[in-house]
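Review form for a predicted model. The reviewer records the input and the model, then writes brief findings.
Reviewer: anonymous (R2)
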Amino acid sequence: MTVILDPDCPFEELLEEIREKFRENARFWGNVQMALMLEGRALTAEEEFCIVNAITDNSGVEILCLIDTDADRMEQCEKALDQKLMELSARTGQFYRGDLSRGESLESEASIVIIGDVRHGARVTAKGNIVILGELRGTAHAGAAGNGEAVVAALEMAPLQIKIADIAARYGDRGKRLGKGPMVASVENCRICAKPIKKSFLEVLNLK
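Model under review:
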């Protein structure tokens, strides 16, 4: 998450605006874990700490780390994110880091979390859920053993085809986006339905 800060606003006013914005939109955010980037003005470590507290105290957002150009802090952020992803992997069954290119395929006996893109012409198959922390431009088949409650989720969704259990939807060869931002596809009324994720990415999935 990136927060753009007014460079001219007095810091206390800025802090109060942040509190108000996140308090008003707490229901929209839900309970979610994020890395935070602050842009627009130079901040001291104390000011950064105040902003993080303003966000977490007025919403369900948990800030895993701050992202900036500081090499040490970037390394700490990466470690924090990796730890959370490994926790997710332990719950969902399989964890894969890297992009899948045309002609490549990946299969899982459980659910799978992919840190990377599934590109045009690539294929992912899982007996559980498929979570892509990147773009889905290829083919995804979740619930391959017949689990119609499985889902396919991606940060950007422009697939060739999505299949859940025995129900499939093909979207053409041009890779048109199904919507803006993170989306989740599931079976509704015997058809594949893709919707934007409007709260916690992980909470929506309820991965098993």
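Findings: The CA atoms of residues 101 and 119 lie 5 Å apart.
Further findings: DSSP finds five helices and 14 strands in the chain.
Recommendation: see findings above.
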